[in-house]
Design a protein that fits this description.
Layout lengths: L2 H17 L2 E8 L2 E3 L4 E11 L21 E16 L2 E15 L4 E5 L2 E5 L2 E5 L2 E6 L9 H4 E5 L4 E3 L4 E10 L3 E11 L3 E3 L7 E7 L2 E14 L3 E16 L24 E9 L3 E6 L10 E14 L3 E3 L4 E11 L15 E3 L3 E6 L6 E12 L3 E4 L4 E6 L4 E6 L4 E5 L6 H4 E2 L2 E2 L16 H9 L16 H29 L1 H26 L2 H20 L8 H4 L6 H20 L7 H14 L1
Parallel strand pairs: 2-9, 11-19, 20-27, 21-29
Antiparallel strand pairs: 1-3, 3-5, 4-5, 6-9, 7-8, 10-12, 12-16, 13-17, 14-16, 15-16, 17-18, 17-19, 20-22, 22-25, 23-25, 24-25, 26-29, 27-28, 30-31
Helix pairs in contact: 6-7, 7-9, 7-10, 9-10
Length: about 600
């Protein structure tokens, strides 16, 4: 019986040793700072093991119960590892850092009290951290937020599905030199945003007594959820600030981001985040009252024009009816109007083309071409067209009607397959359209008939079936016809299937990112290589899964990888990229080996 208490004590001791393998710390960097200068809140989780290197469990959410008035945002993670050997015994250590930007509203002393999080099934205590914020002196140097900042102006209210143009503007003081934009992130779950272009529009502006270079990126913004929606943008950049002395440096005596290989006589290069103020947009539903039946989702300001390619035709001979919608708004959501049904006409779904008049596709013209086949001879009118849209300025639905287009329809020609032949049997019409059935053509067949309308016949001697030109001619037509069908189906799929369109766009962008990564590896630029490598992996995962993983981290990409070897290589690349990105310094790396890892990862996707 005396052994039972000893066994219990041993088990408790072993459990305590296991619990002691994971620990955490928290601190501000720096702990004492002038108001307006950059501050980071860093939580580090340490895990040690004597058998193997511990694995990382990503911390995706860390709810701080009380920030004591501090604005803590933009959390990101990075990890590192080390191995210590003492008396022939190895100790493996893994460190995960959760880094957040901090903004203090006023001078004073701030404390984030201790709190707990769940990590690997354990309750882990995060210790308290203290920060002292000093009042800026009258002659103090301008803060980083005054020298470099990001602005985005959006309306307070929008309608769901409405597309607007907005500008994302990066302000850089004339005394600061922008060296590089490393990454772009955004919080826009309730919106669809256009891609950020590589090139910006540059200008010079005076703002609050200072002169700035302003880099502007035009974007389109479309809300997809109603209610209050959050919106924010962020760049991670490197910039060179004037004067290396501590008294005039906007980062203080010693930069919280560490040194840089670009430090020189003229200033100091720093890598940091710049972001817009938190934005909120109230997204309203479209009104149900007075909504026309012809409304299909168009929002903006549009005009309607309808015309045909002929003033007369024959029974069974196709006519092209073109509907042109011009103006500004969400052209990507505009579908071809439904033609009014008429016993005198058979019509087919239209082909569409869009010609933008600006760089972002908010203004332009969209044309729909309908194939209409007359079924009755006489004085007819082409099917009426009705198009409606919602005008967000007047907050009303507007419906547009096309005037009727007269068309003289002659009886079909006897023996003309397109005018009266069904299943190879000729039915002479002789002016009586009711005596001859009209063939049902597909849209592709109607287009083919429209493109190759019969010309005046001529007598040709010889047997065409023995002429090589006969087979070349018809073979070319067949190939063109098949190619047209494939392109038509592909275009419709791109318009209707968002996942397919996203995958296609991501596939093209992934090839470009891979080329950038290879060029960076050849040039020995490790920072550019890892940034481009991670971007190519995210884009390839987006293409493979059909999900938007363009801003994803390794845990979200892991399910797309089909092998453990590729998963380990992917995790290693992301960790190296984070180390370079958040430390602000390059590191020695075997780029050739990591280039081969990247190729294997992309093959596994």
């Amino acid at each position: 019986m005396s052994r039972i208490p000893l066994i219990l004590l041993a088990l408790i001791g072993l459990q305590s040793m296991a619990m002691a393998e994971i620990a955490a710390s928290a601190r501000f960097q720096p702990t004492r700072v002038n108001l307006g200068n950059p501050i980071r809140y860093i939580v580090e989780i340490y895990e040690t093991d004597k058998q193997k290197m511990p694995s990382v469990e990503p911390v995706t959410s860390m709810q701080i119960p009380d920030t004591n008035g501090l604005n803590v945002r933009n959390a990101r993670t990075t990890s590192g590892s080390s191995t210590q050997i003492y008396n022939m015994q190895a100790t493996y250590k893994r460190t995960q850092s959760i880094i957040s930007d901090v903004e203090a509203p006023t001078p004073g002393t701030y404390t984030i009290p201790s709190y707990t999080i769940r990590y690997k099934g354990q309750t882990l205590t995060i210790p308290s951290a203290k920060l002292e914020v000093l009042k800026r002196g009258e002659n103090a140097a301008p803060t980083v937020d005054e020298l470099v900042f990001l602005k985005a102006e959006v309306p307070q209210q929008m309608y769901i599905g409405q597309t607007i143009e907005m500008d994302l503007q990066l302000y850089i003081d004339s005394s600061v030199r922008l060296r590089r934009i490393h990454s772009f992130d955004r919080t826009s779950d309730g919106f669809v945003l256009s891609e950020l272009k590589n090139d910006s529009e540059d200008s010079m502006q005076n703002y609050k007594g200072r002169r700035y270079q302003v880099d502007t990126w035009p974007l389109t913004l479309t809300p997809i959820q109603t209610g209050l929606q959050d919106l924010s943008f962020q760049f991670r950049i490197s910039a060179q600030f004037p004067d290396q002395s501590g008294t005039n440096s906007p980062f203080g005596q010693r930069s919280p981001f560490g040194g840089s290989i670009f430090d020189d006589f003229f200033g100091r290069t720093e890598q940091f985040n710049v972001y817009t103020e938190p934005l909120q947009v109230e997204v309203l539903p479209l009104p149900e009252a007075d909504k026309p039946e012809s409304f299909s989702g168009a929002i903006g300001d549009f005009s309607l024009q309808v015309y045909s390619d002929a003033k007369s035709s024959r029974v069974g001979e196709p006519v092209m009816l073109s509907v042109e919608i011009a103006g500004s708004g969400n052209f990507d959501r505009i579908e071809g109007p439904e033609l009014a049904e008429s016993p005198a006409w058979r019509s087919y779904k239209p082909e569409s083309t869009f010609v933008p008049s600006d760089a972002i596709g908010l203004h332009g013209k969209k044309r729909f071409d309908y194939i209409c086949i007359p079924q009755q001879a006489g004085s007819q009118e082409l099917p009426a067209v009705r198009f409606s849209f919602f005008d967000p300025k007047s907050k009303q639905y507007i419906e547009l009607d096309s005037p009727p287009i007269p068309m003289e329809v002659a009886p079909g020609k006897p023996g003309n397959p397109s005018a009266g032949t069904l299943n190879g049997d000729a039915h002479p019409l002789n002016g009586d359209t009711a005596s001859a059935p009209i063939p049902k053509l597909s849209a592709e067949e109607a287009l083919l008939v429209l493109d190759y309308r019969p010309r005046a016949s001529r007598t040709v001697d010889g047997n065409w079936l023995r002429q090589p030109l006969f087979y070349v001619f018809h073979g070319t037509i067949a190939l063109a016809f098949a190619f047209g069908i494939v392109r038509l189906r592909q275009r419709r799929k791109l318009q209707q299937d968002h996942s397919y369109r996203l995958a296609r766009e991501a596939g093209k962008a992934a090839k470009a990112a891979l080329s950038e990564a290879m060029a960076s590896a050849t040039a020995g630029d490790s920072e550019s290589f890892y940034a481009s490598a991670c971007r190519s992996i995210r884009l390839a995962a987006t293409e493979a899964s059909g999900k938007d993983l363009r801003n994803a981290d390794y845990p979200e990409i892991r399910p797309c990888l089909r092998s453990e070897t590729a998963a380990e290589a992917c995790e290693s690349l992301f960790q190296k990229a984070d180390t370079i990105r958040y430390s602000g310094q390059s590191q020695q790396a075997n780029l050739e080996a990591d280039r081969q890892k990247l190729e294997s990862i992309l093959k596994a996707l």
